[in-house]
Specification:
The protein is an alpha/beta fold. It folds into two domains: 245 residues, Aspartate Aminotransferase, domain 2; 106 residues, Aspartate Aminotransferase, domain 1, CATH 3.90.1150. The protein is built from 14 helices and eleven strands. Helix 4 packs parallel to helix 12 and helix 5 packs across helix 6. Bound molecules: pyridoxal-5'-phosphate. Pyridoxal-5'-phosphate binds next to helix 5.
């Protein structure tokens, strides 16, 4: 009944060949699929097979059933949302991790999973220039989670737990800018926190610290309990950067947990020249970023660092008798199940480890700088063209622009670009102004792809 190792080898080679062919051909596909809702499902029988379908037919259905409904995030012509860029070493690491089928909830259930994760996140502390005290031998520490949403939710739950004696959850308040990612409001809802207060931003879409201070004063006067503030290094809409130090001052003044969401832009910190965007990290309580966005690590792989691991473990740790073991009891090891909501956890660290080793710090920096240079180039062309206006600063790899003829022209241009099949961009809107987001970050995006995009913009504007 089972696949023998010999059959696995043969089928596995076929799958690797299929993936390699996809890598070779991905640029030729229309970037966004042209399927109707229900079209993919209609190609799948109503009921599960009673007997084996056979591997050959399963593999063939990748082309017949799956491919027509695939959105080509891995096309070098992908400029939509943020990148979810992947790489050969990451794909192979995920395969090896699947082969090992580890359950790394406790150190004792997979010592390698736990220790490699801790060591690789320590590497990243140095690579990204974040505080040394976040390393595993310091008071802080890092953990891999599924998503930035999970990491932020975890941080907010810790903030709530730490302040449990200060008032009921319905009276607690978390502060974010009105440009913050929806995951923060969702995290508040899931954590039962009463209020997620959205603070106005300045002309560069960064949180205005004076407005934050005023909102806190207001809430305190109303008898509410401010517990946390979340700063963004790179908002989703425009990659705006909140003023970290001013926010830290206010957080310290009012005893707020200060969480930093650098989901996309965190990767840029591998290059020293971007670290000015995150000054004073020594004073924040937690920080999250997604290697699964811009670091060529396949989804899912999120990093959460905390400055002090005690409150996190205090919040998340529950020890039923069946999870007790000598290593944990002796206090000699890290049990990552105590660092997030899920119990079970897979070997995600392997792909992060392999990507860093395969490219080296130099290769990763080159990738980031290439994308940022291409974004600068595109922004320069936009600036020189009377038909368009830049909508926001572009500190990283995202360029936002509008059509000077207004919202309809901007929206029509975005729709036309996406309908063309040759590229994918994301239309968005802030305060009634429509703009187009061009996010440059796919692993294989080169100058000629951005030139192709610019040509399409020129033809369709
Ligand atoms: C700034 C920011 N924070 C959080 C998220 C959520 O990330 P995830 O999908 O890992 O939950 C995103 C997603 O794009 C984001 O841009």
């Amino acid at each position: 009944m089972h696949m023998t190792p010999e059959e696995f080898r043969k089928n596995g080679y076929a799958v690797i060949d299929w993936i390699a062919d996809y890598m070779e051909q991905v640029e030729a596909y229309r970037v966004l699929p042209d399927v109707e809702p229900g079209e993919t499902a209609s190609k799948i029988p109503d009921h599960a097979p009673e007997t084996s379908d056979g591997f050959a037919s399963m593999l063939a259905d990748l082309d017949v059933v799956v491919m027509p409904g695939v959105t080509h995030w891995q096309s070098p012509n992908w400029f939509a949302y943020f990148p979810a860029n992947v790489s050969g070493p990451s794909i192979l690491a995920d395969l090896a991790a699947s082969g090992l089928g580890q359950q790394g909830m406790l150190w004792s259930t997979s010592p390698a999973t736990t220790e490699i994760e801790a060591r690789v996140l320590d590497w990243l502390v140095d690579l990204m220039g974040v505080p040394q005290s976040w390393k595993s031998d310091g008071p802080g520490g890092g953990v891999i989670q599924m998503s930035a949403s999970d990491a932020t939710h975890a941080a907010l739950v810790v903030a709530r737990h730490s302040r449990r004696d200060d008032g009921p959850v319905e009276r607690m308040v978390v502060y974010v800018s009105n440009q913050a990612h929806s995951s923060i409001e969702k995290g508040c809802t899931v954590a039962g926190i009463g209020h997620c207060r959205k603070i106005d931003v300045d002309e560069a879409f960064a949180l205005d610290p004076e407005k934050l201070r005023a909102a806190i004063t207001d809430d305190l006067a109303r008898g509410l309990v401010p517990i946390a503030v979340v700063s963004a290094i790179g908002t989703t809409a425009t990659t705006a950067v909140d003023p970290l130090e001013a926010i830290s001052d206010i957080a310290q003044e009012h005893g707020l947990w200060h969480h930093v969401d650098a989901a996309y832009a965190g990767t840029a910190m591998i290059c020293e020249e971007f670290r000015g965007y995150q000054p004073g990290l020594e004073r924040v309580d937690s920080y999250t970023f997604n290697p699964h966005k811009w670091m060529m690590v396949n989804f899912d792989c999120n990093v959460l660092w905390v400055a002090d691991r005690e409150p996190l473990i205090d919040t998340m740790s529950i020890l039923p008798p069946y999870l007790r073991n000598a290593a944990s009891d002796a206090g000699d090891v890290v049990d990552f199940r105590d660092w997030h909501v899920p119990l079970g956890r897979r070997f995600r660290a392997l792909k992060l480890w392999w990507v860093i080793r395969y490219y080296g710090a130099t290769g990763l920096r080159a990738m980031v700088r290439n994308h940022v240079d291409l974004a600068d180039q595109l922004a320069g062309w936009v600036e020189l063209d009377d038909r368009f206006e830049l909508f926001a600063p572009h500190p990283f790899g995202l360029v936002c622009f509008t059509h000077v003829e207004g919202n309809d022209a901007t929206r029509m241009l975005a729709d036309a670009l996406n309908a063309s099949g040759s590229v994918a961009v994301t239309p968005s809107e802030i305060d009634g102004t429509c703009f187009i987001r061009v996010s440059i970050g796919q692993t294989h995006t080169k100058e000629r792809h951005v030139e192709g995009l610019w040509q399409a913009i020129n033809e369709l504007a």
